[in-house]
Amino acid sequence: MTDKIPVEVGIVHEGERIRGPDMFLELGGPKVKYKAELVQVRKADEIEDGKVIVIGKDIPEFSEGDRSSFGILVDIYGGKVEKELEGVIERRVHDFLNYIQGFMHLNQRYDIWCRVSKDAKEKGLTFKHIGTAIMNLFKTAFPFIEKSQITFMTDEAKVKEHHDMAIKIYEERDKRVRGMKDEDVDVFYACTLCQSFAPNHVCVISPQRVSLCGSISWIDARAAANVDPDGPNFAVDKGELLDEKTGEYSGVNEAIKKATNGANDRFFMYSMFGYPHTSCGCFEAIAFFIPEVEGIGIVDRNYNEAAVNGLKFSAMATQTGGGEQAEGFLGFGVEWMHSAKFFNAEGGWSRIVWLPSHIKERVKEAVPEDIYDKIATEKEVTNLDELKKFLQEKGHPVVERWGAKGDDLKDKVMSYIQEKDGEIYPDEASKDLGITEDELMKIIEKLQEDGALE
Amino acid sequence: MKGTVIAVTGKGGVGKTMLSALLIGILGDSQPGKSILAIDADPDSNLAESLGVEFQKTVGDIREDMLREKPSPGVEKKKYLDAKVFEITVETDNFDLLVMGRPEGQGCYCAINHMLRDIVDNITKSYDYIVIDAEAGLEHLSRRTTENVDSLLVISDASKKGLDTAKRIKDLTRELNIKFNNLYLILNRVTPENKDVLEDEAGKLGIEVIGSIPDDPEVSDLDLRGRPITGISQESKAYKEAENIARKLIKNG
């Protein structure tokens, strides 16, 4: 029953391309509408170990140059196999199929693209051979798989059915990936790809914090680190959570100290103050603190006008980037706005006061409903005075902080004046108090109105 | 397996793309069964046109697409990009063609570029011959990470500027630390009148000359009519000399 596979199977064949002139058959690929691969965990009695099912034509039944819809379904069972592992195991379908000489596999999910070489066809390669070979590879790689069964589909109607079902499962998985929390994993990943531009910069990538460039998610970093553990993406044992609010982890601190040659030794993963994450030059967006309203503004790379603080992205990028810790400025990847850890330390979305309208639209789902209309864009507001008015009218949560800050400052100015026995010089006083002269004069006026000063 | 990597460079307009295309055609004809990858790494030239094939997208386009439209969060970007690069590779009976396109534009692409570089390097491992049409700044060559260039061909016509560029390229290989086994100079549009002076001047550059392509009316005719250079007759002087060059490269490679 299990006749020997007529071609070689091994890692040496990985990365082998089958070019057009050498190709016998194309399965899936951009020119075919339906294709999908899926790994599913089943119950013990639902599958028959070692069984290969072929629905539609097998390889030898095709003619040279044919192109076909293609579905792969790998069913597995194991006492210890959890549903969550399906995605991880599915990623290996690509690797294992590529081990087979004369068989090429590209991409993933509903984008798979396979080719069978003329040479492999000549030698009599069938789906049965392929299925048996990759089930063996699976069992070696994942010893906890007790039973496996594989189905290959080339019948278009059947592939369509499989494809439609798989799409729903991928959507579920994406939701789970988005819902994955930093608490759920022990390992984060570092990325030092940008060190050629910013030698002291390192990105720390966690499930809830995408790389600043937006290109490397925790999943991408994990994939890269698995292939090349000493490469630019490497694992960081997150260690102990030192501060839940700011997202300070002992393991992260150790890792960045090493990766930046001691230039930085503390990172707050979810904050723009204290020891913020550094920024290279690659960030998709910049968050900037606006002291006048106690809120955070956001501007992205594609927004060419001046932001509400009067500065353009390019101007702020100079202050933000370069691998320095710059309090009040933070570069980040737009996907981070979907994260529950988005400015966790500052209060998250309730501190965001301004952002370009196209970004607001793009991340609409991520913004809490009760705050959405209270955040201004360039359509409502173009300067700080307008912004203040807007926030006040809409009752943005940051407004509550204004009074508190005012009272604090009043107290501070009062005690300063008392300390100096009423003899103060505005330029010196403003410096000592860390405010502008204008602000100082306004506070003094208010104190006079209150009757606290004469 | 590691194929033979031949890179052709030189000042724009001196016949760099013509030589690349001729070599690709000759390798295809003289080495049946061998696979050839042509890489157009000069955004200012059009190797596809010289080879008489059409292409849809460049590697640069993939990079731009990727920034505009991100795949789902559960998708591995590198696998995704790998397939995209394969998708834009033009396949013909004799050779495949990959067009690199524009260099980085606005925005940062470190991560994406890193993945793409890796992918392109990996693809070249599947071919017996890789012929790269590279711009004089050698930007593409300096970014290759794993594979050495076997033969770096610098082409110049009978002009001071062409020879100056050849000299600059020689210096640049040292600055950029580009690894190659052989560096050769090829002279183009050589006439009986300019031959002696040209060879004399070329000799001063300290680069071994392995070919002198005669000024060939058939080449200028094809050029003028916008026809692919691969349509040149095998009896033409330029083709014959390109054949000699190819023979030397195969022997040395």
Mean pLDDT of chain A: 91
Mean pLDDT over the residues of chain B: 89
Q: What's the total count of β strands of chain B? A: 8
Strand content of chain B: 15-25%
Shape of chain B: globular
Strand tally of chain A: 17
Which percent range describes the beta-strand content of chain A? 15-25%
CATH topology of the largest domain in chain A: Ribonuclease HI, Chain A
Spans of at least 5 consecutive residues with low confidence of chain A: none
Task: Note down, in words, how this protein is organized.
- The complex is a heterodimer of chains A (454) and B (253).
- In chain A, the strands form five sheets. In chain A, strands 4-1-7-6 form a four-stranded mixed β-sheet.
- Chain A has 454 residues and is an alpha/beta fold.
- Chain A has helices spanning 86-99, 118-122, 127-141, 156-179, 218-227, 250-259, 313-320, 357-362, 369-372, 384-394, 399-419, 426-433, 437-450, and strands at residues 23-28, 35-41, 51-55, 66-68, 70-77, 103-106, 113-117, 147-153, 187-191, 203-205, 233-237, 241-243, 248-249, 285-290, 295-300, 329-332, 352-354.
- With 253 residues, chain B is α/β, with parallel strands linked by helices.
- Chain B contains ten helices and eight strands.
- Chain B has helices at residues 16-30, 47-51, 59-68, 77-88, 110-124, 139-143, 160-175, 195-203, 217-225, 237-252; strands spanning 4-10, 36-41, 90-91, 96-99, 129-134, 149-156, 180-190, 208-214.
- Chain B has an eight-stranded mixed β-sheet, with helices on both faces.
- The mean pLDDT of chain B is 89.
- Classes of the chains: A alpha/beta (454), B alpha/beta (253).
- At the A-B interface, α1, α4 and α5 of A face α4 and α5 of B.
